[in-house]
Design brief:
418 residues, alpha+beta, Antithrombin, Chain I, domain 2, Alpha-1-antitrypsin, domain 1, 3 domains, 9-stranded mixed beta sheet, 33% strand, Serpin_B9/Maspin, secreted, glycoprotein, Serpin_sf_1, protease inhibitor
């Protein structure tokens, strides 16, 4: 069989190539109608579009599930997390899990229809990591395993390529302070006495930092102190950024809500904001959206077909959110129970040691939204509304920062109070 060009099938459809250990083309297989996939057992493995689409849907479903859990915990507070960081690290733990433990991870992360989870995540991670040259964006994902578990050669080799540098063997028992320093060197001030101790066996640590530059810069002279309506009766001062420009915007009638897409520089990332038209309930005004939110609804609400280019008078808060969250209770509520219980967890794919469980999951996020960006250049679109719309985010809203190439959610949050 002739070797097709690197990253291209015989049908001419591009594929993402990933190195593996072998030299000859051995076989082809079909994955979905009309898609021919060639696998090179030593040099290249292709992650097909159906696999990447399934992984995107899985990541979106997990993001929505966890967002709703965190909103229940903080109904009137600011929420922010990075679903792609958490799902990547938990998928790495799944490689070492067996039986019901592996099944639970797959169910909570919605991996039922994803055929190649590790290399799917490698493709997403590789694409997102390239953005560090455009933005102040850093995603850190680590699985720390105590050396006493003596991770198997098979586990190490199976995770080495798709999860490069994401698994580290450390000594929690005898070199606890050194290990804390090692973790804090990766993620500043992340570990403390409560989250890491000498009994820790497996630890998931991840963090996401982002300071974006907009495609269209907000004029700094237009930033003014305004009142942010945290609910129907209370207000707080906030620095409100404003501009008039063309953006993609739409209305979601079922939840009486507006949506707008704000692209960052080079359009690799976008911020999507869901804003209720007013504060209608007795809390943040987001209750109707949160109640109806699920993965299918999110796909519908963020579908480009419901949005059109419009001249917009835009106002959004200038803000910074920095949080360390403990997602463990929320993950348990979603069904991830065996993994944290020494009596039921099964990590026999990682170690022969019995009674080993995931000790903790630590998650840190930092997001800063400022005026910074490129020159404001109007680019006409195919559907342009002639009148000027207003998008005034002076009350609580839900937002997503999305990687546009893979359409994976990097950050998911809600802003309820300055």
């Amino acid at each position: 069989m002739d070797k097709p060009p690197r990253g291209v099938s015989k049908s001419g459809e591009c594929r993402s190539g990933r190195d593996r250990e072998s030299a000859d083309w051995e076989r082809s297989q079909r994955e979905g109608p009309g898609v021919q996939v060639f696998i090179k057992t030593k040099e290249v493995i292709f992650v097909t579009k159906p696999t990447m689409d399934a992984l995107r849907l899985a990541n979106s479903a997990f993001a929505v599930d966890l967002f709703k859990q965190l909103c229940e915990k903080e109904p009137a507070g600011n929420v922010l997390f990075s679903p792609i960081c958490l799902s990547t690290s938990l998928s790495l733990a799944q490689v070492g899990a067996k039986g019901e433990t592996a099944n639970e991870i797959g169910q909570v992360l919605h991996f039922e229809n994803v055929k190649d989870v590790p290399f799917g995540f490698q493709t997403v991670t590789s694409d997102v990591n390239k953005l560090s040259s455009f933005y102040s964006l850093k995603l850190i994902k680590r699985l720390y395993v105590d050396k006493s578990l003596n991770p198997s050669t098979e586990f190490i080799s199976s995770t080495k390529r798709p999860y490069a540098q994401e698994m580290e063997t450390v000594d929690f028992k005898d070199k606890l302070e050194e290990t804390k320093v090692q973790i804090n060197n990766s993620v500043k001030d992340l570990s403390d006495g409560n989250s890491v101790n000498d009994q820790t066996k497996i630890l998931v640590v991840n963090a996401a930092y982002f300071v974006g530059k907009w495609m269209k810069k907000f004029p700094e002279l237009e930033t003014k102190e305004c009142l942010f309506r945290v609910n129907k009766t209370d207000t707080k001062p906030v620095q409100m950024m404003s501009m008039e420009a063309t953006f993609c915007m739409g209305n979601i009638d079922g939840i009486n809500c507006k949506i707008i897409e704000l692209p960052f520089q080079n359009k690799h990332l976008s911020m999507l904001i869901l804003l209720p038209k007013d504060v209608e309930d007795e809390s943040t005004g987001l209750e109707k959206i949160e109640k109806q939110l699920n993965s299918e609804a999110l796909l519908q609400w963020t579908n480009p077909s419901i949005m059109a280019n419009a001249k917009v008078k835009l106002s959004i808060p200038k803000f910074k959110v920095e949080k360390i969250i403990d997602p463990k209770p929320s993950l348990e509520n979603l069904g991830l129970k065996n993994i944290f219980n020494e009596n039921t967890s099964d990590f026999s794919g990682m170690s022969e040691t019995k009674g080993v469980a995931l000790s903790n999951v630590i998650h840190r996020v930092c997001l800063e939204i400022t005026e910074d960006g490129g020159d404001s250049i109007e680019v006409p679109g195919s559907r342009i509304l002639q009148h000027k719309d207003e998008f005034n985010a002076d009350h609580p809203f839900i937002y997503i920062i999305r990687h546009n190439k893979t359409r994976n959610i990097i950050f998911f949050g809600k802003f309820c109070s300055p």
